[in-house]
Amino acid sequence: MSDLIRIENLKVYYPVRSGFFNRVTDNIKAVDDVSFSIKAGQTYGLVGESGSGKTTIGKSLVGLEDPTSGTILFDGEEATTIKQKKKLNYNKDVQMVFQDSQSSLNPRRSIGEIIAEPLKSFGVPNAIGAGAGDKRSFDQDAIDKRVLELLEIVGLPARTVTQYPFQFSGGQRQRIGVARALATNPRLIVADEPVSALDLSVQAQVLNFMKKIQRDFGISFLFISHDLGVVKYMTDNIAIMHNGRFVELGTTEDIFNDPRHIYTKRLLSAIPSLDVSKRDANRAYRKRVEAEFAENQAAYYEQDGLRARAYDLKQITPTHSAALKKGEA
Ligand SMILES: Nc1ncnc2c1ncn2[C@@H]1O[C@H](COP(=O)(O)OP(=O)(O)OP(=O)(O)O)[C@@H](O)[C@H]1O
C-alpha cells in the first residue's frame, strides 16, 4: 500500500518575544523534527500528554499552521510548496474535525449553511467517494442536494438543514462536523480529539461511525488523542509524542504489546484494568516501570531553555525499531 501523505523532518517553532524591544529571545519547539507517513485507508494515531505538539502537527497538515521547516508530501507531491492551483486540491483533500464541536460550528449559521461552506469554496464533487477529478460547481441546487446527501451519511434528518448548532447534542454536533469535513470528498481527515468531549456511549457511536465512513470511502485518518483505549481501537499505527518529539513509533499492536520507551511504558501502565484477576500483575508492572523511570530520570531530563526537554533520544524510526527487534541496535 502506498503512502498517501509523508511528513519529513517537520519542525514548528513559535517565537518567544521579550524585553523592551520585543525581540525574539527564544523559541517554543512545539514540533521538533518528526517524520511519519500515513497509508491510504489507514488510521495513524498521535498520542501524548497535553502540550506535546499533537494539534500543531494536525494544523500543519491542514495548512492552519506554517511549518518552520520540513516537507509534507501528499500523493508524492510537495504540499508545503504546491502551487496555488494544486493547493486548492490539497485543501480539498485534507480536512479537519475538531475536538470542540460547540466552538468549531458557527452558532449564527444554520447547519445547512455550515455544511455548504466548503462546497462554496471548493465546488460540489461529482459523487460521494469520487475522489480526484471532481468538477467545481456553484449551482445552488447541487449544493442543497449534496448537503442532504451528507446529512443522510451522518444519520441526521433532512430538517437539520434549517436548525442551529445549539439545538443539537454533543454527539450530533460532532456528526455535523464530520459532515462538513466530508463535503469535499477528502482523502485524509485530521481528527483532533474528536470524542473526548462526549460521554462514553456517545463516544462509541461516533468512533464506529468514523470506522464506517473509512470503510465506505477509503478515507485515511490522523487520529489525535490522549485516550489510549480509543487509540488502540481506532488506529493501525501510532507515534508517541513528548515535548514536540516522537519518542516511539510503530504498529499499534507492537506498541501495545511491546512498548520500548519508558515514557510509552508509563503511559500504558497507567491504563486502569477492569479485569480483577490482572490487577495485582498490573500493579506490579506499574511499580517496576516507575522504579525504572526513577532510576534513570536524571538521564531522561535535561533543562532546555523554556522547557524540560525529556527523553532526548534519537528518534526511533521503523528501521530502527526493526533493528531493535532483531537485536541489532
Ligand atoms: N500559536 C501558538 N503560539 C505559541 N505557542 C503555541 C501556539 N500553539 C501552540 N503552542 C505551544 O506549542 C506546544 C504544543 O501545543 P499543541 O496544542 O500542539 O499540544 P497538544 O499535544 O495538542 O496539547 P493538547 O492535548 O492539550 O491539545 C505547547 O507548548 C503550546 O503552548
TrEMBL record:
SUPFAM superfamilies: P-loop containing nucleoside triphosphate hydrolases. GO terms for biological process: peptide transport; protein transport; transmembrane transport. GO terms for molecular function: ATP binding; ATP hydrolysis activity. CDD domains: ABC_NikE_OppD_transporters. It holds the Pfam family oligo_HPY. InterPro entries: AAA+_ATPase (IPR003593), ABC_transp_ATP-bind (IPR050319), ABC_transporter-like_ATP-bd (IPR003439), ABC_transporter-like_CS (IPR017871), Oligopep_ABC_C (IPR013563), P-loop_NTPase (IPR027417). Belongs to the ABC transporter superfamily. This is ATP-binding cassette domain-containing protein.
